[in-house]
Amino acid sequence: MAEAFSSVPAVDYSRLNDPNLKSNELSKLKEAIFGVGFLYLTHTGLENLLHRTHESLQEIFDLPANLKEECNMIKSPSFLGYTQLGAETTASRTDLREQFDFGTPGVNEWNQSDPIWQRLEGPNQVFLIEIQHIITLPANVVKYPKNLGIQSIVEDYIVQINELAQNFVHLVAESLSLPPSTFDGFKGNMSRLKFVKYPPAAADSQGVGPHKDSSGLFTFLSQDNTGGLQVLNKNGDWIDVPPVEGSLVINIQQGFEAITGGTCAATTHRVIAPTTKTRYSIPFFLGVRLDLTLSQLKESAAHIVRQIPISDDRKKRAIDVPSEFLSPLYSCFGEAHLRNRILSHPDVGQRWYPELYYKYSRQTLQ
Ligand SMILES: O=C(O)CCC(=O)C(=O)O
Ligand SMILES: [Fe+2]
User: Fold this and answer.
1) CA 110 → CA 82, 123, 268, 283, distances in Å?
2) Does the C-beta of 95 come closer than 6 Å to ligand 1?
3) Which protein residue's CA is at the shortest distance from atom 9 of ligand 1?
4) Is the dihedral of CA 62, 286, 156, 22 positive or negative?
5) What CATH number should be reported for the domain holding residue 191?
6) How many helices (H) and strands (E) are present in the chain, helices listed first?
7) Ligand 1 atom closest to Cα of 219?
8) β-strand 10-12 against 38-42: which pairing, if any?
9) What's the pLDDT tens digit per position in 86-140?
10) What is the complex's ipTM, to 2 decimals?
11) Ligand 1 pocket check for 254: Cβ under 6 Å
12) Is 337 part of a structural domain of the chain?
């Protein structure tokens, strides 16, 4: 459980990479990882990329509804593609957001002999939009195809943020006094990137409801200047995560929580929908190995937890942290993640995994 923090700390990435300043900054990183589970990462060198990508979001979401529907997530057993406003559910309530989900390109296609959860990794759908978008100019009623270049925007973003994410995981290991490569063997084949739009809504509406991120190790979020993101502390207070220009907001996901035996806890967060302007955000979810079983995990977690320099008392308490990934109900991370996707996107779940949908939706009702 995250401690009773009252703000989200900032860590300077350029200092983490400066031999003279590194050790001081690693201590800040360690405190943020243990105490909050959320941090701002500043001076990443990705400021231009974030700015450029945010600039293209409005045009992408302003595409005609029928074009966005061409790549509706319902067509993807990997839960990749477009989700219209109101089609997503968190904490049993409807989220007021519209989004595109993308995955790291180039993963192997699923086939019948693979486990069912392996199907979470698959190809993107976005290409359809590229070739079909037609712009009509009202003045002279000329029609011409316009390529927004979504595919290259997405792939460029994934390459650059992924490089930072890999480095960040090494730095986290170092901050916990572990060898930098400690977590390398836990990385998944596919990470996920989302473009998200929260339109203005009535005061206190749910942009996205309270949740812990469940698809991987860490989330790297770029939010615009609107605000609305909040994280929950131990006292049950919602703490604002106001926009900090050019920064990334990084949080621990349930995969990393499970790998560290709960010593590094995933923190619950939510977004309150904006009331007067549209909010855009770009979360990148660094993927975790889907095939990791609970027993493998317990073994590696015990090994890692033993080496993490915190008090035995805190370690003991940490083992009790509840996590979907540590539930004996699921055979491996892949199964836990598939359940999460099915419940978040029930229409997609029902279409591609009808039996699992039936099973999991009954489990939550109990
Ligand atoms: O849009 C945001 O700021 C956060 C989104 C989020 O928490 C999520 O999609 O998991
Ligand atoms: Fe989240």
Assistant:
1) 21, 10, 32, 25
2) no
3) 283
4) positive
5) 2.60.120.330
6) 12, 16
7) 10
8) parallel
9) 888 888 889 899 999 999 999 988 999 999 999 999 999 866 566 556 665 555 5
10) 0.99
11) no
12) no
β pairing state of 206-211 and 269-272: antiparallel
- Residue 192 buriedness (CB in 10 A; 0-12 / 13-18 / 19+): buried
Rounded average pLDDT over 228-253: 96
Residue 342 CB–ligand 1 contact under 6 Å = no
Q: Cα(213) to centroid of ligand 2, in Å?
A: 5
Q: Which domain holds residue 89?
A: 10-322
> Which residue among 98, 271, 272 has the greatest number of ligand 1 atoms within 8 angstroms of its CB, and so is best to mutate?
271
pLDDT of residue 135: 63
Does the residue 357 lie in any domain?
no
Residue 38 lies in a domain: yes
Ligand 1 proximity of 196 Cβ (cutoff 6 Å): yes
Pairwise CA distance, residues 123 & 167, whole Å? 26
d(CA 177, CA 164): 20
Q: Is residue 334 very low, low, confident or very high in pLDDT (cuts 50, 70, 90)?
A: very high
Name residues whose C-beta falls within 8 Å of residue 131's C-beta, 6 or more positions apart in sequence. Answer: 145, 147
For residue 19, what pLDDT is reported?
Answer: 97
**Residue 221 Cβ contacting ligand 1 at under 6 Å:** yes
For ligand 2, the distance from its centroid to the CA atom of residue 30, given in whole angstroms, is: 21
pLDDT for 282-301, tens place per residue?
999 999 999 988 888 888 87
Closest atom of ligand 1 to CA, residue 281: 1
| Residue 43 Ramachandran class (φ > 0 left, ψ -120 to 50 alpha, else beta) | left
**CB distance 119 to ligand 1 below 6 Å:** no
Please list the residues that pair with 216 across neighbouring strands: 287
pLDDT over 90 (residue 38): yes
Ligand 1 atom closest to Cα of residue 198: 1
User: What predicted TM-score, i.e. pTM, was given to this entire model?
Assistant: 0.93
The arithmetic mean of pLDDT across residues 303-308, rounded, is 79
Instruction: Assess if residue 199 is contained within a domain.
Output: yes
Query: Domains in the chain: how many in total?
Result: 1
Counted residue by residue, the chain has a size of 366
For residue 96, the ligand closest to its alpha carbon is 1
